[in-house]
Amino acid sequence: MNRLAKHFVLWVLLWLPLLAVGQTERFEAVVIDAQTHQTLPFAGVFVSRSNSTMTNAEGSFSIGCAPTDMLRISFVGYQTRTIVAEQMGRVVELHAVSTTLDEVTVKPYSSYLKEAIKEAQRQLKKNRKKRANFFYRQTAYADSVCYEFMEAFLSGHSSVFLRDLALSKGRFAGIQPDSLHYYSYYANFFSTSQIQVTYMPGTKVTSSDRYPLSEYYESNYDVSFDMIGSDNDRLLAAHFTPKPTDKPVLDATLYLDANTYRLRKIEGRELNLKVMHRKQRGSRYEEELAALFGKDYFDELIDTEFHFVVNMTEDREFLEVESVIIEEQHELYGKTIRTSSMLFNVGDRDIGHGRMLDTQSNMHDAIESQGYDKKFWRDNEIVLRTPVEQEVLRLFESRNLFGVF
Known about the structure:
By secondary structure, the chain is an alpha+beta fold. It has seven helices and 20 strands.
């Protein structure tokens, strides 16, 4: 072996271990309940503040990281697990925490709520201007047919509850209706992710305000409690049942850390809401109607309710929204219309500047004005798609429906 070859072999032997350390691989698994073996959808999977994801609706996830990276997998109500990526396997089991007997709790439950209200206000005062970037996915079905697929990157103020959303990038594809097929398009479905459980500091609050974390909660809700877990990992589950009203209100359970009084999770229903529904297009009179009444003729508000789950995180050293999952269902044109969305905090990932959206903004129009960047979306899946979502995406791309409105 000549001297040059010897130097090359020596270089390889010296640098190969360092190259291996920085190598990124794809790791996939499904997260399940260790006892029931039921999948756990929308569990958090964290590697770093710039690299995290969550499980999809079927409990599966995919993440790129080094084999030696540590993955933290969490789901409220279950014991968190930390696993080396290369030792993870294809199934991750989480163990549920048990419900604590009432006799164990010395402090009155109502005092926990008072402290939780104070803590939420303290967090908002300190972090009200902090924003986060989010990945958003929305799908809609008419009976068993998926007719809409939307993905976007949004930003918004994220401390305690989500607000002031802005659109950075987005794509939308939908099947156009015809004389035999009618579809319902929500133009502002994204706005339902802004679940507000308390008031902004400095705001005058009265008994007519229906925030669960408000000094007037007893005027609007009947509340019951459960304590979950033990020792330093206890959660107080506060169940808020609304008193009769025709105003927007939450019917929800708030999970509070019994030691810090901070929100960990919110789930339930949002009642008495109105959302913007885009009327069916494609009739022979569409142009005439648009000319007479304007483009907004095809938009109307409809009454509905939503099921939601909001998960919280402190990975950026303050309490903020980690993910929001929304599901809605109604009957229209003799079909069952099901619309769902998921929104996930992508941490320190840079998504650029965005266009501000209010609660009545038409997301379709906002995305249309940006144009469609096919390469960008191929590189930014973020949350693993379910097999059905992947097949819908493939079908819509093959028909060139993205960027067509």
